[in-house]
Amino acid sequence: MRIIARKPLLEFSARFPDAKGPLERWWTICKRNNFSNFAELKKTFGSADMVGRCVIFNVGGGKYRLVARVNFKAFTMWIKYILPHEQYDRLDLKEDSQNAGHSPS
């Protein structure tokens, strides 16, 4: 998969050092695979969920959530958010799907 972009992973890892290893594993797995649909992705990431047009990944044993838009036909992922679990719980992804490009406050 082509992942846009790595910078959010690096910035999040700098703020939450315990997330560095899990995010690097997520990056490596995604870069080495081309998922053509959500079912294929779910075989690799069993806890992944689809909410609206976003795929939610549990990272670091569920301590963090990575939210990405995935274009399965183009084999592309766009990282929208990486959040601690408690911030993710306050995120409204249905609204976010309608307002692509806005960051949570």
Overall description:
The protein has 105 residues and is α+β, with helices and mostly antiparallel strands. Mean pLDDT is 86; it is low at 97-105. The chain has helices at 7-15, 20-32, 38-44, 85-88, 93-98, and strands spanning 2-4, 49-51, 54-59, 64-71, 76-84. A five-stranded mixed beta sheet has the order 1-5-4-3-2. The chain contains five helices and five strands; from the N terminus they run E-H-H-H-E-E-E-E-H-H. The protein has one domain (2-97): YaeB-like fold (2-Layer Sandwich), CATH 3.30.2310. The N and C termini lie far apart (29 Å).
How would you concisely characterize the structure shown here?
This protein is α+β, with helices and mostly antiparallel strands and 105 residues long.
CATH architecture: 2-Layer Sandwich
The counted number of beta strands is: 5
What gross morphology would you assign?
globular
Radius of gyration of CA atoms, rounded to a whole number: 13 Å
Q: How helix-rich are the residues, as a percent range?
A: 25-40%
Unreliable spans are 97-105
* Total count of helical runs of at least 4 residues: 5
Secondary-structure element sequence? Answer: EHHHEEEEHH
Q: What do the pLDDT scores average to?
A: 86
Strand order of the largest sheet: 1-5-4-3-2
Helix vs. strand class: alpha+beta
Count of discrete structural domains: 1
Cα distance spanning the termini = 29 Å
The percentage of residues in β strands lies in 25-35%
Largest sheet: 5 strands, mixed
CATH domain topology: YaeB-like fold
